[in-house]
């Protein structure tokens, strides 16, 4: 929760000055600076994730720096799963990937497609967002049925769309940081370092 609050404060620190410098009304006014800043952050990190997935050779998709952590491919699959989940919550619809666990996939082609498909789904959600929409909860989608024998989860209180939208970005950034280490250990330059050349 503290991390999310810090990120919100940072996003507002970036967006508010930009909004204040724009003309108050009419042509040239800056509309929705917070949602546009979120979209720009998502575009950056989702691009790094896709390029990381493409860059790592298929034989290294099973690579784990230590046995206790996810493999490179499992991280890509986990992020794809999570993007669908976060963005479906923000949109207020049932997760379109429900029942399809990309973390169990092993083929590079399947995982590259999964990360690109989940990013495309999220990109469309970020594109439609306005600052006003970020502050209100979406309509609640029907809860998924619990797995056989699993206890039903209690209903969650409604949260504004900002929560899953920001949660998605911070989760993507966290796992991109993991992927950087995996790429470096295999002698590959991470996408974010390539852009600095």
What features would you describe in this structure?
By secondary structure, the chain is mostly helical. About 60% of the residues lie in helices and about 0% in strands. The protein has helices at about 1-20, 35-55, 70-90, 110-130, 130-135, 160-185, 190-195. Helix 2 (about 35-55) runs antiparallel to helix 4, helix 3 packs parallel to helix 4 and helix 3 runs antiparallel to helix 6. It is globular. Residues about 10-30 have low confidence and may be disordered.
The ordered string of helix (H) and strand (E) elements is HHHHHHH
- Count of separate DSSP helical elements: 7
Mean pLDDT: 86
How many strands appear in the DSSP assignment?
Answer: 0
Beta fraction of the residues? Answer: under 5%
Distance between the termini: 35 Å
Broad shape:
globular
Major beta-sheet overview: none
Uncertain ranges: 9-28
Secondary structure class reads mainly alpha
Query: How much helix is in the residues?
Result: 55-70%
């Amino acid at each position: 929760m503290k991390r999310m609050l810090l990120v919100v404060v940072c996003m507002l620190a970036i967006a508010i000055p930009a909004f204040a410098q724009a003309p108050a009304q009419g042509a040239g006014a800056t509309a929705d600076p917070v949602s546009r800043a979120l979209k720009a952050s998502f575009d950056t990190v989702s691009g790094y994730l896709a390029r990381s997935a493409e860059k790592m050779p298929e034989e290294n998709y099973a690579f784990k720096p230590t046995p206790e952590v996810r493999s490179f491919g499992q991280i890509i699959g986990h992020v794809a799963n999570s993007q669908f989940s976060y963005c479906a919550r923000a949109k207020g619809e049932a997760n379109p990937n429900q029942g399809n666990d990309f973390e169990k996939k092993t083929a590079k082609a399947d995982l590259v497609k999964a990360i690109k498909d989940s990013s495309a789904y999220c990109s469309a959600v970020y594109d439609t967002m306005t600052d006003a929409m970020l502050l209100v909860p979406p309509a609640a989608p029907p809860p998924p049925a619990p797995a056989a024998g699993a206890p039903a989860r209690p209903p969650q209180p409604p949260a504004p769309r900002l929560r899953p939208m920001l949660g998605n970005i911070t989760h993507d950034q966290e796992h991109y940081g993991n992927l950087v280490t995996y790429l470096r250990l295999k002698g590959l330059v991470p996408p974010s370092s390539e852009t600095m050349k």
